[in-house]
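quick one
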Amino acid sequence: MSQGRIIIVSGPSGVGKGTILRTVMQQRESLHYSVSATSRPMRPEDREGVSYYFVSRERFEEMIAAGELLEHACYAGNYYGTPLRPVEEALARGESVVLEIDVQGALQVMQRRPDAISVFIAPPSYAELKRRLAGRGDTPPDIAARRLHIALEECRQAKHYQYTIINDSVGHAVQELEAVLTAEACRTSYRPLNLKEED
Ligand SMILES: Nc1nc2c(ncn2[C@@H]2O[C@H](COP(=O)(O)OP(=O)(O)O)[C@@H](O)[C@H]2O)c(=O)[nH]1
Ligand SMILES: Nc1ncnc2c1ncn2[C@@H]1O[C@H](COP(=O)(O)OP(=O)(O)O)[C@@H](O)[C@H]1O
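structure w/ guanosine-5'-diphosphate:
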């Protein structure tokens, strides 16, 4: 059985992470998408247990104290974190686990799990990022402005990631992420060659 890996995917709000990952997840059934916990309010299209586990700030703080999270961060005034147990269970089954998380959380995972694959999704330009965030129509202008401000700092942190993919077109970005996953799966250290004379 091949070994499961953690795959960190980060990038500014509205860059297209969800759009790209939906396609890649459909193409690769052995990937497990980690559903995060968050204290942010639900959006109309959100589904409990699918987009996130929506919890109160108090419950989130309990999860931190109990060591239930692999990583956590405060992003734009709300908590976000990765429940540890489902990640460990998926890895134990030999599945690779996708973490769609912000830069602060990603840096924690890179420290704790140095074998994680890290991918930063970048916008082709700031103006295009602004258009996409506004175009999604679910983020009020004041919150969008805050997220765009955070985006500038996030892009400066892209240097900490192993790979950067510019999401100019979805098709192209999906192809590049596929290429990264294929190349990583072929790396010798993750592919023990148990060649035997009798085979
Ligand atoms: N550290 C951390 N960040 C997360 C987690 N889940 C989501 N995020 C990040 O939190 C940020 C805001 O997410 P969200 O409110 O869903 O906005 P969206 O990315 O614009 O749809 C994004 O950068 C997400 O990648 C998590 O479990 N941990
Ligand atoms: N390459 C692209 N070109 C144009 N629009 C895009 C592209 N990728 C994503 N989008 C659009 O941008 C918006 C934000 O994408 P989304 O996947 O929700 O971003 P994120 O998950 O990073 O917040 C959506 O309306 C999506 O359809």
